[in-house]
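Title: Prediction job returns without error message
Component: structure pipeline
Severity: low
Priority: P3
Assignee: unassigned

Description:
Job completed but the reporter wants confirmation the result is attached to the right record. Sequence as submitted:
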Amino acid sequence: MFHPIPVAKTCAVAWTTAVQHLVSVGGEAYNVVVDIDDPIRHTPRDKSVIMGLDGFLRERRANPIATIANTIFPQDLYRRYGAKNFRAEYLRGYDSLKNKGWGRYFERMVRWRTDEEGNTTDQLGYLVQKLSKQYAAKQRYKSVYEMTLFDPARDRRRNRNRQCLSFLSFKLHPDRGLMLTAMYRNHSYIARALGNFIGLGNLMAYIAEQVGTTVGPLTCVSTHAEIDSASAKPDKDGNGEACRGWTVTEARELIAKLAIARATAVDIQQEATTAAK
């Protein structure tokens, strides 16, 4: 029941390796462990994999990869408003939404509800402060940096439309910089996983920049992972479809089409590894 995926250099290589493994074991597995050595690097051939999956999702009117990534870290807002102001801009936009049932990971990071009276805490802000202080210390604590995304008060009675990312555990490695282990209760590898990897990498890059360290490896533990399908859904106005959906067969055909790009990316990864030795 333990499925370790070979260590990959980038998010795209990790995703393509993992989806092919899932296909080989029947489309779903428990305790899938993915290690990504450089989660913020995207080579031209990696981008061909990303664009291939993104085109598939957009064609079916599903959330594109950038939207999935931004649920974890709002990269565009960070670029536009900077470290000082992007949280406020994010929360302003979030509070204007009518439907807040999905995509609230970053909101939970920066505005975690601590009690029934509505008091909140900025988990991410405190994490950065703690890491910065320890990074500057002569003797560092290496493994005391964590954020929770599962909220028993909001999530315990819900079976659907709740968080899949449950927990984040960061480490300060003496040689590799900032490391992250992310735990998912469930992972849809077509609709979500690659965007999740990219979003987690962006989150790591932001924290590392604030602390003054480098981005290290990302480990993602999916306690359940699947090659998912999606049902067609009408839009709210009844005009056409909000999502055209896809079948598992179509998902597997997509994976096969991306195999060439994946193989090329793996070749480059192996060449780089050989050159480094």
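Comment from assignee: result matches the submitted record. The two ends are 34 Å apart (CA to CA).
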